[in-house]
Each structure stands twice: as C-alpha cells, then as structure tokens.
Amino acid sequence: MVPSAAFLSLQSPPLRFSKSPTACMAAPPACLGFKNLMETYAVSVQRAEGRALNVPLLAPFMIATARVDSVENVAVRVELRNGCVGWGESPILPGVTAEDQAAALAAVAEACRALLESPGKTLAIVLAEIGGMLPGHSFASVRAGIEMALIDAVANSIGVPLWRLFGGFSNAITTDITIPIVSPTEAAELASKYRVRGFKTLKLKVGKNLSADIEVLKAIRTVHPDCLFILDANEGYSSEEAIQVLQKLHEMEVTPILFEQPVHRDDWRGLGRVSRVARTKYGVSVAADESCRSLDDVKKIVKEDLAHVVNIKLAKMGVLGALEIIDLARESGLDLMIGGMVETRLAMGFAGHLAAGLGCFKFIDLDTPLLLAEDPVLGGYEVSGPVYKFTNTRGHGGFLHWDNIC
Q: For residue 80, what are the β-bridge partners?
C-alpha cells in the first residue's frame, strides 16, 4: 500500500535546470506527485551498483552505545536507460543498523542485479520487489539506499526536485547540531563555535554518566545561554536516571525542548513512565528513536501512549516505510522528528528534501555531514549555518565522482 496523506499530487511551475553530469536531454512533463509517479512511471535500469563510501570524521563521535571514528557507508548509483542517474546512501552503524559494510555491499549487489531484470515495471512494483528482497529492519538501511537512488533517478528523469515531488511545502529546512559525549571543556568549545555559526538548537548526547552529563550541560549553558537543548540518551539511562536528569535540569532552570530515547529500546514500560513524568511534571516531550523502527512499533507507541514524538530515520525503515509511519503519526497526533545516522550529503540531502517537501516535522536533526572532515558529494543543497536550501535541481542534486570512491 502507498500511504495517501504523505503523497500529494501537484503541478509544478517551470523549473530551472542546473548543469550536472546526470542531466537528461528530454523535456520533462509536469510533476504528477509521488503517488501518481509510483503508479505510472515505467522503470528501465541499465546500470546499478554499490560501492564503499568511507569518509573521516573531524573528531570521534561518541554516543552512549557506540563510538564512530569514520563513516563506512555504502553509496548506490542507479542509471536508467534514458541516461538519467540517481544516487543513494546506506549508512552503517552496527548496533543501530543490522548490517555491517560487507553485508550491506553484498545485499546492495543482489538488489542491483534485480533492478537490471525489471524493465518496464512501474516504480511502485519495482520498489515493492526491492522491499520483498530486503524486508523489515534487517536490511532497512540497504533498502533505503536503493530506494533513494531509484527515486532520485526517476525524479531526474522527469526534471523535478525531490522537495516538490514530496509535496512542495518549502525548499529549505533548519537543522540542529549535535555535541557528542565529550568533556565539559570540549563541549563548551563546540557550543561556542556553533553559536557563532548561527545554531540555536544543540542536540546533546548523554547517557553514559549522569553526573558528567550535568557538568557538560552547565558548561554549554555558560557559553551559549540562549540555546535550545535536545537531550539524546541513545538508550543509555534507566527510567530512574532519566527522571533524575530532568529534575536536576529543572533545578538549574533548564527545560530541554525534547528528551530523545531516554531508555533501552525494549523498555516500553520505562519509556512510558519517563514520558508521563516528563510531560506532566516538567513540560518536556519525549521522543522514541531506537524504539521506533517499524510501523508496528509506532502502533504500540500510539496505543499505549508511550511517547510524544517519533524520530523518522530512513536507514531504520526505508523511504516507503518512513512515509507509512509519517502518515500514521500525523493521523494519531504524534509529533515528528527527522534524523539520520552518520551520513554524507547524499542521504542527508534526500532526507532534507523529504522534510522540506512534507513540511510536517517539528524537530529536524540532519547535521552529520557538518561533522565530517571531507565532503565527497558534489552539487546538492546549499548550506548556510543551520539552514539547508534546496534549489530546483533535479532529484536531490547531489552526486559523487564514482571512480574516486572505488
């Protein structure tokens, strides 16, 4: 099933076409919206391939449950028979994503072979077949990368930017930026730097040591007193510790705008308890991230009133799966957050276009390309501090020099 609310039929005004190695010569038809496109566009793939995408970080990225020293993802390139190319990315974060890079590369190769054997089928059928090959959470990140590349290729083929295809609400978003688990001194240095660059919302990784977390919060508040806080424990606290953090912050007269995944993803009782106390006593919303990996998870969250926000990450659920969850969340009155793993501007660009086009996300956390030591992506969105602007480039507009990442 294709969810209805997330896919809007629209007519696009004339678009500007930027020069790019993936530009197509045929004049594009008017955009029919993603739902109609799924049902009417016949896909014919002539090349499809995945390669390792390794990028160093500016500094190690520490969260409560993992340490990341470099990006070791998988880039996906899909070329249609009309010459139009699409790009996707499968982020790899063992413990959060189910696959490592080697397994992801093997799964991408199998999916790419299937794409070559599906000429003339509609986009909806092809994506459904990919979903059948890579079901559930086990290979959600791989599924997302393939879906991104195929949808991007089709959007390039009809000459439409993704933000228009997904609804056209806006062509820009404003993201927070993340401070990983570091010392109070390092946290203050980062917060000061981000303040100068215009970031008003800081997402602070917590959950390894309650006392240290409080000291880091104090240090950040000293140098960036007006910032908004998102706390992200990445499953690191017990429910008692999470509530204790909120109490200590209350004593400091600090109220975070969001408390993300305070407890282990399977601790549903703890998640519900923290959510009730956070909202009723401190006026703080709680988000389910690791606890939100499927449509069934969101149904449980809604039914049992376990959280106020769900974090949509394409790598957890794929593109189509994410859109189903977005529909359910909106119908159920849950607020929405969009985030990512540690990704380049390929995956962040796609997610950003989705968020801008739909316009339904209260919290936007698409900052990880800003934490990389290198940017391998050419084209794509424009960055000005926390603001990402999406031009009328076809698709998401980002691409790689393919031979450079062999």
A: 45
**What are the tens digits of pLDDT across the range 58-97?**
988 888 777 888 899 999 999 999 999 999 999 998 767 7
Q: How far apart are CA 38 and CA 55, in angstroms?
A: 33
Q: Which of 141, 146, 154 has its CA nearest to residue 129?
A: 146
Terminal Cα distance for the chain, rounded:
37
Rounded CA separation 264/405 (Å): 36
Pick from 160, 170, 54, 65: nearest CA to 102: 54
The first and second tokens of residue 298, run together, are 């969101």
Nearest of 290, 308, 360 to residue 8 by alpha carbon: 360
Tell me whether strands 67-80 and 286-288 are parallel, antiparallel or unpaired.
Answer: unpaired
Rounded (to 5) percent helix, strand, coil in the chain:
40, 20, 40
Three-state secondary-structure class, residue 62: strand
- Bridge partners (DSSP) of residue 287 are 260, 309
Residue with tokens 């990140």: 141
Q: Give per-residue pLDDT as tens, 108-135.
A: 999 999 999 877 899 999 999 999 999 9
The helix (H) or strand (E) run that includes residue 310 is strand 309-312
Return the axis-axis angle of helices 123-133 and 101-116, rounded to nearest 10°: 140
Tokens representing 97 are: 């994503």
What is the DSSP track for 105-136? HHHHHHHHHHHHT-TTEEHHHHHHHHHHHS-T
How does DSSP classify residue 404?
G
